[in-house]
Design brief:
The chain is mostly helical. 57% of the residues lie in helices and 6% in strands. The chain has 18 helices and five strands. Strands 1-2-3 form a three-stranded parallel β-sheet. Strands 4-5 form a two-stranded parallel sheet. The protein is elongated and about 85 Å long. The model has no long low-confidence stretch (mean pLDDT 90).
Length: 404
């Protein structure tokens, strides 16, 4: 088994439920562009997740999957730096989801954030399905399959990661006490240099006897530095350090990201469901027409009527795209009616076209070379599956399902 350091690995996915738009770009993809150079990143197309709410639209799924990957590549996500794959190409996600479902209390799923909210928001759909209820559990399986230490989230999404941590703790509690755990841990200590082994024992004793948190952190860092130690031995010694059993599944942490929220054309959250988006593949003419048609402050009936930018969806876009000087021009000009609404929209049109145009051109080039895209996904899915098989092999062994 290859040694994986959870603290170096990031996992994130997106559901293919429609064309990617500026909300996706500013909310997710720009962050991925940074993360791919700082972590061992696994980015996946969550096609099974899409079926939890869009199961009646399955005939569109394949096209949406490849359109999504094309957009990822077009914005600069690099398959040589990050692993790109499709969720359903790695069946181990489903196996781990099934195994986790055996030990996860139903109440944990029913209290998941967004369960009731989404049912209400999408009340035109029949979401009284196990797939929808089990969405958080499949999400946990996605993360734990790759032993990811970090998952990019917004400030309001911490609860989504907490259920994954609870599930990991439950797995470790139920199955982490392997036969001969202490003797295996002691054997692992002897594989370290004598000096390192002595230091590990000293730090472990200081933590277990005195509750010294600094000793715990130092010992954890010490284990992280052991490049010649197997993942199994590292996890065994992490558990031994804390007086528990072997850590089968590490607990992930949310990687808080700053989200430059992009409002839709109506001022609400940009969403394909609400048909208020600017797509990453919109032409300059389409962008021009969409922004020119945006509603403005209803108080500005005539050109010389003063307005209030805070009541205008166009101002919300300016807050994302304009510099301080431009925003000052908009505020003053709107409030004293020295500029009209079309005057206010024109710099936005130019800025958005400038941002989207190179992405659109690259996407068109990739569209004309479908084999290139499919090969990237095939290779990424193979890498992802190798990692997933390693994890499932150890989990089966811990549970006792490794029959001969």
């Amino acid at each position: 088994m290859s040694a994986v350091d959870p603290q170096s690995r990031v996992l994130s996915g997106m559901r293919p439920t429609g064309r990617l738009h500026l909300g996706h770009y500013h909310g997710v993809l720009k962050n991925w562009l940074t993360l791919q150079h700082e972590y061992d990143c696994f980015f996946f197309v969550a096609d099974w997740h899409a079926l939890t709410t869009h199961y009646e639209e399955a005939k569109y799924l394949e096209q949406r999957v490849y359109d999504m990957v094309i957009d990822w590549l077009a914005v600069g996500i690099n398959p040589s730096t990050a692993t790109l794959f499709i969720q359903s190409k790695v069946p181990e996600h489903a196996e781990l989801h099934l195994l986790l479902s055996m030990i996860t209390p139903l109440s944990w799923l029913e209290r998941a954030p967004g369960f009731k909210d989404q049912q209400e928001k999408l009340r035109e759909k029949d979401l009284s399905t196990y797939g929808f209820l089990g969405y958080p559990l499949l999400q946990s399986a996605d993360i734990l399959t790759y032993r990811a230490g970090y998952v990019p989230i917004g400030a309001d999404q911490e609860a989504h990661i907490e259920i994954t941590r609870e599930i990991a703790r439950r797995v470790n509690h139920l199955y982490g006490r392997e036969p001969g755990f202490e003797s295996n841990a002691e054997a692992a200590i002897k594989k370290m240099s004598k000096k390192t082994g002595v230091l590990y024992r000293k730090l472990r004793r200081r933590y277990l006897e005195q509750g010294n948190e600094e000793a715990l952190k130092t010992a954890q860092a010490l284990l992280k530095e052991q490049s010649n130690m197997t993942l199994g031995d590292k996890e065994r010694l992490l558990g031994y350090l804390e007086g528990t059993g072997k850590v089968i599944l590490p607990e992930p942490q949310g990687l808080l990201t700053t989200y430059a929220g992009v409002p839709g054309l109506d001022g609400q959250k940009m969403s394909n469901t609400d048909n208020n988006t600017i797509s990453l593949r919109d032409t300059p003419d389409q962008i021009n027409k969409k922004i020119r048609r945006m509603p403005t402050d209803p108080a500005r009936i005539r050109r010389n009527d003063p307005g209030d930018p805070t009541k205008c969806p166009v101002w919300q876009l300016h807050k994302v795209y304009s510099n301080d000087k431009q925003k000052q021009w908009v505020q003053v000009g709107c409030q004293n009616a020295s500029i009209g609404c079309l005057d206010c929209k024109q710099p936005l049109i130019e800025t958005v076209i400038e941002e989207v145009q190179p992405i659109r051109i690259e996407a068109l080039e990739l569209e004309s070379n479908p084999d290139v895209v499919k090969n990237i996904i095939a290779e990424g899915s193979e890498v992802a599956r190798d990692e997933a098989q390693n994890t499932l092999r150890e989990i089966r062994e811990a549970i006792g399902l490794d029959y001969r």
